[in-house]
Fold each of these.
Amino acid sequence: MKKRPTIEMVAERAGVSRQTVSNAANAPHRLRPETLKRVLGTIDELGYRPSHAARSLRTRATGVIGCRLLPSNYGGTGGVLDRLLHALCDAARASGYNVLAFSVGTDDEEIGVFDDLLRRNAVDGFVLANTHHGDVRPDWLVDQGARFVAFGRPWGVERPRHSWVDVDGASGTSEAVNHLAGLGHTRIAFLGLGEGNGVGDDRFHGWQRAMQDLGLPVEDLVARADDGIASGKALADQLLDAPQAPTAFVCVSDAMALGAMRCIQDRGMETGRDVSVVGFDDSPVASVITPRLSSVRQPVEGVAHKLVEILLSELSGTHRRPSRVLLAPWLVRRDSTGERPSTGYAATQKGAASRRGRRQSKSPST
Amino acid sequence: MKKRPTIEMVAERAGVSRQTVSNAANAPHRLRPETLKRVLGTIDELGYRPSHAARSLRTRATGVIGCRLLPSNYGGTGGVLDRLLHALCDAARASGYNVLAFSVGTDDEEIGVFDDLLRRNAVDGFVLANTHHGDVRPDWLVDQGARFVAFGRPWGVERPRHSWVDVDGASGTSEAVNHLAGLGHTRIAFLGLGEGNGVGDDRFHGWQRAMQDLGLPVEDLVARADDGIASGKALADQLLDAPQAPTAFVCVSDAMALGAMRCIQDRGMETGRDVSVVGFDDSPVASVITPRLSSVRQPVEGVAHKLVEILLSELSGTHRRPSRVLLAPWLVRRDSTGERPSTGYAATQKGAASRRGRRQSKSPST
């Protein structure tokens, strides 16, 4: 691999000082035309590209933060990233910055866009979303001297060289378990993603930890599949067919939770009365379906604020060590979680009465 | 008001040609340092700012399209604008462009951001969303010589000076009426927005036109309020209390439709069997609630493609006359619309049987 040309190499080849090369790029009117022409020719010849980090630091010229727009996957995690984009635009704007959004299909294409934007000096830095195991993007950006902050932990990397902000998914699923245990549930299942997904594993561990802390069984109470309503339905079906079926589901996503709710309905039971369900992400659907879905909500505004704060402090050069920020989500309690029915799936009078009471309090007009 | 300084005024004051002033901004290395210094000083002194349009045309430098990110209003129209942003990023990317998204609270603030982005030459043009009566933004942009395309018609403006792309809402609500009439409904109500809202009025007119074309009554079948689930519920309640109650609702939004569905449920009836409901926008909620909501879907990808196509052709200077593009939406038929019950709200055996049949066909596993 060819060594990346430095400003010193250009200066030596053109027979000028380091400062003159810098001026050619940043203050061309300070140079005599013939000098400018020679330096620009040498820059071109060697393929020299000024360090983006150094240039950003010096000029902070663009006022723009680049961020990939991930495909919307409502009910899944995509809704959260749309909410994050809104929050990011708000937080950036409050600091005089805007967000440049781009849509690509793969991480490699994303790196291609990073490269293009850096070459054209079109952004000051990036927010990197959707981090995952084997993610090649952070190292690429660090090697380029680019400034960025990740939304998501550096899964599988022991000594990350960059700053990140993430939501503590495990604490969210722990809270869900504690809520359900407080309603009398003991067989609380987890509907999760395949192992090796950082976000999915984190949420699984929170469920597992809380169950063990409460002395509740975890055997035969975990089912895993790719995210989606159909998956959630199939997994819930499978667990409800078991001899010792769960009375509650903690789900890795709202999509899984919606699937579990369909399964419960198709079995002639009622979610929140016969079987309880907790989703994750509090997607827009959660508050409008019937019964309304209890779900763990990510503090998206807080995440966006932290991302911008850290990125701007890195851009200003006052911030040298990578930051690590983990924010806690919280459970939004709605109608999909209720007391454990006293005898199997039979609707107890008590359960039915409490459900009627809740519904009436929401609809005083009926 | 002071006259905006022109390139001629700068050239005269600095004692140079028009071309020299242009070079000072775009090719400073072509000028002798003392000339450059004098011209830049005069530019500064007069507050001259090159025409953005002319500069974009010449340089097409940024590869960036600016677009305000409107607050998400899931269930309402906000979801459509999020979908549009994704589609816009895709369409822009396919042409080597990116989208700069910014979030502001008011049109005046939006103009402030336009001004800032134009001054800093940070974008080549804009997509203007959420056009409305008395919209001051298009004229401001035209007067600045900025390139832009609106998503939304220039409501209330007879001779717009800019290009726009919009969705033919009236044809969507007409299709909804025809669908319901085909199912035997004759008293088909419209739940709309207050008069004077361009989008709302357009959707109302489509309902009205189709009803009149079919010879159906329109008296006492319209209710209006601000968008929202609570509004939809209240309006549906009001119409269902009337002596000659409707058996179907065409709604200006999915939020209104969700409200109508709640009202129907709270009255102990079933949507799709006792009363039919059609929403507008096919928001993510529509396909996951029970029963699934029939809704008019906007061709967001087509809109984004047209917006980018028109903007780029205006940027390239090949496109001189404002374009006007109206795209047709289509009705997505789901379970919230069914045959008119033969006697009032009583569930007919036929209706119940056909509903059971539909449900079974969707859930082969149960």
Amino acid sequence: MDIKQYMEQVGLQARSASRAMVRADTTRKNRALERIADLLVQSMDLLLSENQKDLDAGKKSGLDAALLDRLALDQARVEGMAQGLRQIAALPDPVGEMSDLNYRPSGIQVGKMRVPLGVIGIIYESRPNVTADAAALCLKSGNAAILRGGSEAFHSNQAIAGLIHQGLADAGLPAQAVQVVETADREAVGELITMSRYVDVIIPRGGKGLIERISESARIPVIKHLNGVCHVYIDDQAEQKKAIDIAYNAKTHRYGVCNAMETLLVAEGIAAACLPPLAEQYRQEGVELRGCAATEKILPDVVAATEEDWDEEYLAPVLSIRIVSGLDEAMEHIHQHSSGHTESIVTESYSRARRFLAEVDSSSVMVNASTRFADGFEYGLGAEIGISTDKIHVRGPVGLEGLTSQKFVVLGDGHIRQ
Amino acid sequence: MDIKQYMEQVGLQARSASRAMVRADTTRKNRALERIADLLVQSMDLLLSENQKDLDAGKKSGLDAALLDRLALDQARVEGMAQGLRQIAALPDPVGEMSDLNYRPSGIQVGKMRVPLGVIGIIYESRPNVTADAAALCLKSGNAAILRGGSEAFHSNQAIAGLIHQGLADAGLPAQAVQVVETADREAVGELITMSRYVDVIIPRGGKGLIERISESARIPVIKHLNGVCHVYIDDQAEQKKAIDIAYNAKTHRYGVCNAMETLLVAEGIAAACLPPLAEQYRQEGVELRGCAATEKILPDVVAATEEDWDEEYLAPVLSIRIVSGLDEAMEHIHQHSSGHTESIVTESYSRARRFLAEVDSSSVMVNASTRFADGFEYGLGAEIGISTDKIHVRGPVGLEGLTSQKFVVLGDGHIRQ
């Protein structure tokens, strides 16, 4: 296979399909989503047997247990995919929304219309459910999608792709509105992220290594999520119970997620009261605590934190703790070490909450809430294709609206510029 | 001068100043803008004498008359700059605007807050007034700016920069919130567009060559305006007088601007009635007409258009005309040849207007209005830093809002994720 030529063909087809998707009304898009959901459940045997091929190959090539688990489909996971599609069908369609339509002194009316981005390239790793999720979000937002999953999920993804094509066609939409790249060759990724004529935006989903590689080589805008070094700051005007609940939840609710807290900042005025009971709760959960020198004075058995700890996304039962003089030092630490994902302040002080909200430059900024809320479902987006830690276009959880843009519309009645 | 080290310093200062700018309230930012405006007018002699150095050097190095004209400052132009600053001071401040704040089932409130992008790098060519305009837009939107003007305007830009610094300092803002790069060395541009640690977005302003070079090498998101191949489509259900007025205005109101029409598409059902009187008006203005074979049958003296004509941004009294069967063929032509800037349909048909608005994928889409309206002032943005023909973040005229983004804010009262 000539990869360059093949990808050129994929791009051309996607661009063409994207024009049909712009015209597709909400009913038709929803019909396709519902139909694909039905087909997934009806094709359970096919999906599980194709998935088995990937699992067998994975075992043979020595994939570790965690990767094999992510790769595996079972009845519940397939039903989960179908349910996800039905949830996306139930969401409001953002395309065509008009806003801010006002008359101007010249007599024209000027407003904005929400429109699909066009063609979205999504590059992801081993989970086959991403194929259905990502396709559904692109489809509902009126975009064409080119999906490139991990080579270890090749057979699973191709089987899902076949059902998506059938569902699109059954609803009268072009099957090529969702294309799953039919080669495991890495060169295909290189083409995908550079063919700016056909692809409008790239969304990588996966580990930091994948995302850095793609951002480095892409010649197309990338919406990316690098990492989540999230902070909770317990102010000395915090209510102690809220502080402990939030700091405990933000670390221990789940460890391997980007919105888990990695560093706890505590105002020196409240540290002695707050840290011992909190540390006791962490210890019961087996969380390893690493602390600054001041923390060690209050919690003698913490490990001494190194400079590297402040920049580390543990994704594990490990927490670094730093005692700061107050809000300014906390915000300075966040500015130096945050990855721009999510930060939360615990305080009863109105003024400090207001400052934290305004001045902390992260995609989600919270007052008296656990960082674990930073999530498309919790925010009411219905679903998310990822969480953007970029600063332009979209920040935080990316739902349907993040896959659209706004163009200007001008309505006149023969108006000319004087 | 070690350019790399110098630019690193500039970047570091900009990042630091951007944090002070986030905290700056509207009054303080406006005070700085008003103060800079005053200083520009008070320093007329200095500005004109520094500008004279650039003009002398430009003449010596053989700059053409058009370039020298763009470079030249006089009393009116300096007063125009000052007025521009005062207009920006009068605009509403977009920073901090909160929207869509709603309670979620979990009990948290989730909304969005508009925030500055951070540090904006602007690269432009010879006009010194861009230095003041761009600085003012960045300042008002709470961003720090690194400006890199054309080397031929070096002395003018440095003189303006000095006044900006003084105005910022007088208002209690960091002078380094606006830095004008103090070297004409091209290596500085290379550093600016790759130091992603310090710069959040690059906006090139200038000719297509400059913008392509920068987009190609940047490692930072670029908001760009490549070119304006704008179309007017006269539908066979157009009212003839409106059609002729709009097509005439869109071409002849000004030639060297990106929102001028470059190609006129005419439905075959109205071409014979519409084109002869329109062509007569164009001829009186000295507009050269190039047409497709069908056009030549109606207007025998047009030049035959070549394939290249359909992709050409003339920026001159030249117009290409193509007769199409109707709306679908017109939209297909636009899809193939438009640069995504601005397109307008002239029609009395509600359904066709609705389709054109929904399906044409350009930054501005118009009904019964001249493409010349595609402009930040005409749209009510107050001022613009450029017109984006990109698809993500911002499309069309970029005003203050385009220099901001939205982060999520979450308000809880001890809420944790269950």
